[in-house]
Amino acid sequence: MFCYSGYVTQKILVAIGETIKKKLEVEETELGKTKKVFSIFVEGVQNVIRYSADSIGESDELDNEVRYGIVTIGSNTKGITVQCGNLIFTKDVTRMKERVDLIAGKDKDELKKLYKQQMMEGPEEGSKGASLGFLEMARRAGYPLEFSFEEVSEEYTFFCINAII
Amino acid sequence: MDNLEISATETTPEIKFDFDSHYFLFGGESYPEHSDEFYRPILELIQKYSQNELESSATFVFRLTYFNSSSARVLMKLFELIDEMGENREIKIEWHYHEEDDTMEEFGEDFSDDIENANFKLISYSDD
To answer: How close is the nearest chain B Cα to the Cα of A90, in Å?
Structure first.
């Protein structure tokens, strides 16, 4: 349905987001479902904007920094799929897996509880922005999120989130 | 206090504060890149209002159609502020959501769970 690979900024997120909403509207997707796809897409891409290890610009200057990532929106027999991928530092994989494992195997009520807990606690140390993003994605998805880590070099690992709505 | 009127942008909501009639409105979508930056002055304004106008009853209306997780965190802070205000005055909260939008309905329910001192109403609307 849609694939974007390149540097991602908030402006690009808005542009792709509008396109996705229009496309789903044309296909007469139910409003509730469209909202969930959009929500997962926004959280996934904002995660790339915040955390991708592949960037241009000064990493200290938030607004000048541009991060690289891949986003695909498609469909399979289960529903609409949203995939977001980006490079992370291989040294961060363990920490990332720990965060992801918190979400794995949780049902909707448990996710809701975690979400609330996370909102009260505030952003994690060393994290730019809310770590609520994955939880939000997990709550909106129709199936458990799939996370994959593929080491591409000693320095970098490709991290990918796959959601089905 | 001077009234506040902020028009909606692609990623930030419409915000209207009418201090004379004690009416506060948030409407539209919210997914700015830096939610804290956008909302900080707005929360400060409400804080100031809550300290100045100790007795007036107030109405907060939310017609949000989408917000991201970092906006949700700000909203939670906002509801904490509103709930505190309700300790010594009458506060009404209206949470409007489209009848087919179960995400906004659920968020409304979640936020209302933590409200103890205000009248929180969930109101659904349809296209027509």
So the answer is: 26
Strands B91-98 and B119-125: parallel
Note the pLDDT tens digit of each residue in B67-79: 999 999 999 999 9
CA-closest candidate to residue A36, choices B35, B66, B105, B124: B66
Tell me which chain A residue has its CA closest to the CA of residue B36: A129
CATH number at residue B28: 3.30.750
Query: Mean pLDDT over residues B51-73, rounded?
Result: 93
Residues of chain B with Cβ-Cβ distance to A112 below 8 Å are 110
CATH of the domain at A62: 3.30.565.10
Number of domains in chain A: 1
Core vs surface per residue B34-68: b (16+ CB within 10 A) or e: ebbebbeebeebbeebbeeeeeeebbbbbbbbbbb
What range defines the domain where residue A49 resides?
A: 2-164
Instruction: Show which residues on chain A lie within 8 Å of chain B, measured between beta carbons.
Output: 10, 14, 18, 30-32, 35-36, 38-39, 42-43, 46, 49, 62, 112, 116, 119-120, 122, 129-130, 132-133, 135-136, 140
Domain count, chain B: 1
Assess contact for A1 and A83: CB atoms under 8 A: no
Q: What's the gap in Å between the CA of A3 and the closest CA on chain B?
A: 21
| CA-based nearest residue in chain A for residue B114 | A116
Where does the pLDDT of residue A81 fall: very low under 50, low under 70, confident under 90, or very high at 90 and above?
Answer: very high
**Contact: A132, B34; criterion CB under 8 Å:** no
Range of the domain at B10: 4-125
